[in-house]
Amino acid sequence: MTLWTDSLGAETRFRDAAGWRTRSIEAGEGDAVILMGGLTGHAEGFLRNVVPLSERGLRVHAIDVLGHGLTARPTDVTYHAPVFTRHLIGFLDAIGAERAHLVGQSLGGWIALHTALTHPDRVGRLVSVTGAGLLLSDPGRAAESERVHAQVKAVTTKAASAPTRQSVRERLEWLMLDPASVTDELVECRYRYYTLPGTEEALAKLVAEQPSEANRAYMLGEDDLARIDHETLVLWSDHNPTTPAEVGRRASEILPNGTFDMITGAGHWPMFEQPAQFNRIVGDFLAKDAR
Fold first, then answer.
1. SS3 state at 80
2. Helix, coil or strand: residue 187
3. Cα–Cα nearest to 46, from 151, 209, 189, 170
4. What tens digit of pLDDT does each residue of 63-108 get?
5. Is 221 exposed, middle or buried (0-12, 13-18, 19+ CB in 10 A)?
6. Alpha-carbon distances of 146 from 110, 206, 229, 276, rounded to whole Å
7. Predicted local confidence at residue 141, as pLDDT
8. Second CATH level (architecture) for the domain 3-141+219-289
């Protein structure tokens, strides 16, 4: 299978979302579902999910988050949670969706939860996949957490600031449990995005501003999670290289309508590494009342 064959049955469209040109890979009819990826990622990470999820009676949109992929990459914004939410709400307006189910991986999970907290009437169900933005780390693991985040920043900065096919491959291999999951095609796709005109400055801002102390104010602690009463699936993987599974499990216990599930045999990209498991679990959760 290739990215091309995975995309068969889907279409790519561009829309104005809050003033920013936004790419969406989409398929199906029914309730709107928005798929959002992680920091410096792109919609191709969800190509193995768009059509299968759409077959559950859903209108699925895998979008390039603001500053990523083929979506606008402005350099006059601060890449903190509120600007991503503003962009997402603009996309919902653009597709005429009063509400949408949100599925976010890593940074996308943070965006989904922040949007549910600040615009609860625009959100249906939530899925946070190896999600970022959770202020629940065990103080006893602080040193390990800092080590992991330093490693993430180093491999991401190397790939984004002076991209080569090798540095891009190393970043992708860090995401995956099995390096063989990183195909030459996927490396080339991401390398092409990273080397588009105007991308370098936007990526530098993203990498610098996401882990900043100012953005930490938008991370979700216990009080924030307790206010999100949407049905929420916290979905982890058994080999996630960033936040440990117990943080996700704890988040699911704090969320008033939270549940937890685990995908096996995957790293940080379970939707790509184990699509059959992902599509079954997420499809069952979102399609309860699909029409």
1. coil
2. helix
3. 189
4. 999 999 999 999 999 999 999 999 999 999 999 999 999 999 999 9
5. exposed
6. 19, 19, 31, 33
7. 57
8. 3-Layer(aba) Sandwich (3.40)
